[in-house]
Design goal:
Layout lengths: L13 E4 L11 H9 L2 E4 L2 H10 L5 E4 L5 H13 L4 E4 L12 H9 L4 E4 L4 H9 L6 E6 L4 H9 L5 E9 L3 H12 L4 E6 L7 E6 H11 L5 E9 L8 H28 L3 H16 L4
Helix pairs in contact: 3-4, 6-7, 7-8, 9-10
This protein binds S-adenosylmethionine.
Length: 293
């Protein structure tokens, strides 16, 4: 019978090792060999990685490498490589550097003349694409969109001319805002796939049009767990916003925010001057009251 973990003689290098995105059995034999053989594993969160190592009886020393200590740790890591040590980099889940720390470390280690060796394996990005059913010949990975509404819309608009499957990482409580932004930029008929909790007990993959998906989401409340959202972009640019759409938005928002607040929000949303929209909101208010001028 083949031995599960083999004792391997590794050369000095930084090994970038992919780890599971949920199911602990999604780890390659080579990843286990490497994590066993290296002198030190640098992990985002040592408690999280310890659980994985314990599951396979791996006792290698763990140290932290994350965004907050990266600047301090990079020279330490390069010094260890100068001494001939074998080091691994892992993140909490999936492939390091994919919306996870490590880019600056890999760049610095390579620039210092040391080898960086990938140990490939799971990533939520490839798992979602492989089972989502949207085209995969051209895809664009945009990671997490900006949290601020205006910046999020701008980022989405920057993809409007591309015919591609846009892949986003998202959390349950921001999903409705993101889908609303997708509808605003690309239209309610945009085809999307949500892949949630991949490789875990509540794995769910839903294929829908953006408008129908948002209505269901508003009914069900925010989904729990980790999410990859894939959006099929046609490359036909942004949807045109009609004057009626703007009026409907102003009327809806004025109920809570008044004319000034609604105009401010609409100005960001539709990229129109606030003053113009305020005048329009006030005139809509007058119309609603039946004023004649
Ligand atoms: N490096 C990781 C990779 O290779 O996928 C991604 C790390 S990023 C900080 C975490 C995000 O990845 C989550 O917020 C979610 O969007 C996505 N993700 C991670 N695990 C997932 C899973 N099991 N199912 C769906 N999405 C997941």
């Amino acid at each position: 019978m083949t031995q599960l973990i083999r004792s391997v003689d590794l050369s000095s290098a930084l090994y970038v090792v992919a780890t599971p995105i949920g199911n602990l059995r999604d780890i390659t034999l080579r990843a286990l060999d490497t994590l066993t053989a290296v002198d030190v594993i640098y992990a985002e969160d040592t408690r999280q990685t310890r659980r994985l190592l314990d599951a396979y009886g791996i006792k290698t020393t763990l140290r932290t490498y994350h965004d907050h200590n990266g600047a301090q740790m990079r020279p330490v890591i390069i010094e260890a490589l100068e001494k001939g040590e074998r080091l691994a980099l892992v993140s909490d889940a999936g492939t390091p550097l994919i919306s996870d720390p490590g880019f600056k470390l890999v760049r610095d280690v390579r620039e210092a003349g040391f080898d960086v060796i990938p140990i490939p394996g799971p990533s939520a990005l490839t798992a979602a694409l492989s089972a989502g059913g949207l085209p995969t010949d051209t895809f664009t990975f945009a990671g997490f969109l900006p949290v601020k509404t205006g910046q999020r819309l701008e980022r989405l608009k920057s993809f409007a001319d591309q015919k591609t499957t846009l892949v986003l990482y998202e959390s349950g409580n921001r999903l409705d805002d993101t889908v609303a932004a997708i509808i605003e930029v690309f239209g309610a008929e945009t085809e999307l796939v949500m892949a949630r909790e991949l490789t875990k007990m509540f794995e769910t993959i839903i294929h829908s049009e953006a408008g129908a998906f948002l209505s269901q989401l508003q009914e069900d409340g925010p989904p729990k767990g980790e999410i990859v959202l894939m959006v099929s972009l046609t490359g036909e640019g942004q949807v045109e916003v009609s004057e009626e759409d703007i009026d409907a938005y102003l009327i809806d928002r004025m109920a809570n925010l008044g004319a000034k607040g609604a105009a401010a929000e609409a100005s960001k949303k539709f990229d129109r001057p606030k003053r113009e929209l305020y005048a329009r909101a006030v005139s809509l208010q007058h119309k609603a009251r039946g004023d004649n001028g």
